[in-house]
Design a protein that fits this description.
This protein is of the alpha/beta class. The protein contains ten helices and eight strands. The strands form two sheets. A five-stranded parallel beta sheet has the order 4-8-7-5-6. A three-stranded antiparallel beta sheet has the order 1-2-3, with no helix packed on it. The termini are far apart. Residues 71-170 form the Rhodanese domain. It holds the Pfam family Rhodanese. This is Heat shock protein 67B2.
């Protein structure tokens, strides 16, 4: 780490521009520039990846892998797209719609309320493999992370989302 950063008790960073908050710059010319070494960049990247991201390749299923999985076992497909998106673009047969914005609330519901709202026993979330689906995979990745917070162990995403599913079908 730069000696500048070690000496500054409080600092802020904007891209490569680093400055002390005790003596903020008054003009763009007064910025101090700091470029981390390759080793420091690797360390920072590894820390960020470990703490905030779940690697998609560990939990991502291609459309063909999902088709095989659907043929072999009882998989629970949860489509986290909005109902309007599903109505406009279609859905995978057998999927249940729990919009991403409602997911945390849905996972907090009790058994009877959950069954009434979504049409299946809430215990299946913990006993069947789950596959989250969205348009391209971003919301489903976030949904996967939320499911892990609720103790769901066997969860996956459809890599490339519904768009990849439709492309492979055509």
């Amino acid at each position: 780490m730069s000696s500048f950063l070690r000496r500054s008790p409080v600092f802020a960073s904007a891209g490569c521009k680093v400055f002390s908050l005790k003596n903020p710059p008054t003009s763009p010319q007064s910025y101090s520039f700091y470029t981390p070494s390759v080793t420091q960049t690797r360390r920072i990247s590894a820390i960020n990846l470990r703490s905030t991201h779940t690697p998609a390749q560990s939990f991502g299923l291609s459309p063909s892998e999902l088709k095989k999985m659907l043929n072999k076992s009882e998989v629970l497909l949860i489509d986290v797209r909005n109902p309007e998106e599903i109505q406009k673009n279609g859905r995978i047969e057998g999927s249940v719609n729990i919009p991403f914005e409602s997911l945390k609330g849905a996972l907090d519901l009790t058994g009877d309320a959950f069954r009434t709202q979504y049409g299946f026993d809430r215990r299946r979330l913990h006993t069947s493999p789950l596959v989250f689906i969205c348009k391209v995979g971003i919301r489903s990745m976030k949904a996967l992370n939320i499911s892990k917070e609720f103790g769901i162990k066997e969860a996956f995403i459809l890599s490339g989302g519904f768009d990849a599913w439709k492309t492979e079908e055509n």
